[in-house]
């Protein structure tokens, strides 16, 4: 229904991050079927846009050929190497400050131009068409147990609402830590916890679409299993996401973003 605040979830732009698909589809099922009053509140008070698998060709390839494939499957002109890193392909400081490569054989190849990939182009056009309704943009990734906020392209500049992004990060990580699993997430900017990453979807949503709550969530684990996280962790990871999300949305309401 029009008029409700909307939340966008982009999942599996990186093909090998299988826990993101499982968690996104688990979460959709919760929204549709759960009797839990907090979940019903989420389902009924917001418009949800969930793209459970953005990089569909890459995801298929991780089943048929290479479990650890990351990029899209588009051929590149003048190279035998296939694919682009979708999360370096957005038109936000594209290829400016590092963390992305101009070499098609690299895992972090940024593409021949911003939005060279059909996946990122279609996503960006759709998000742009609904941007005025969107209060929150989330991108699901793995692994590391991080909640990351802008900017990814620079360590020098901070986003204008950094304090709020931090405060929301605090409640997200505490909600997860307080569960029986006791899992620890950290929060911070992408460069502070990982590395510079220019041309990411979350930077684009924040800077170009003016969606002031934009986060990348890096799910379980911290490296023991890495991208080949056993299926037994799907439910715990999903439950943590749900608890974190309830806290995040609550705090966003407190701070008048919704
Ligand atoms: Zn990723």
TrEMBL record:
InterPro entries for the chain: CARBOXYPEPT_ZN_1, Peptidase_M14
Pfam families: Peptidase_M14
Subcellular location: Secreted
Predominant place of localization: secreted
Gene Ontology cellular-component annotations: extracellular space
Domain Peptidase M14: 1-252
Key word Protein biosynthesis present: no
Entry cofactors: Zn(2+)
Statement: the UniProt record of this protein carries the keyword Electron transport: no
Keywords: Carboxypeptidase, Disulfide bond, Hydrolase, Metal-binding, Metalloprotease, Protease, Secreted, Zinc
PROSITE patterns according to UniProt: CARBOXYPEPT_ZN_1 (PS00132), PEPTIDASE_M14 (PS52035)
SUPFAM superfamilies membership: Zn-dependent exopeptidases
Family, as annotated: Belongs to the peptidase M14 family.
Designated name of the protein: Peptidase M14 domain-containing protein
Species classification: Eukaryota, Metazoa, Ecdysozoa, Arthropoda, Hexapoda
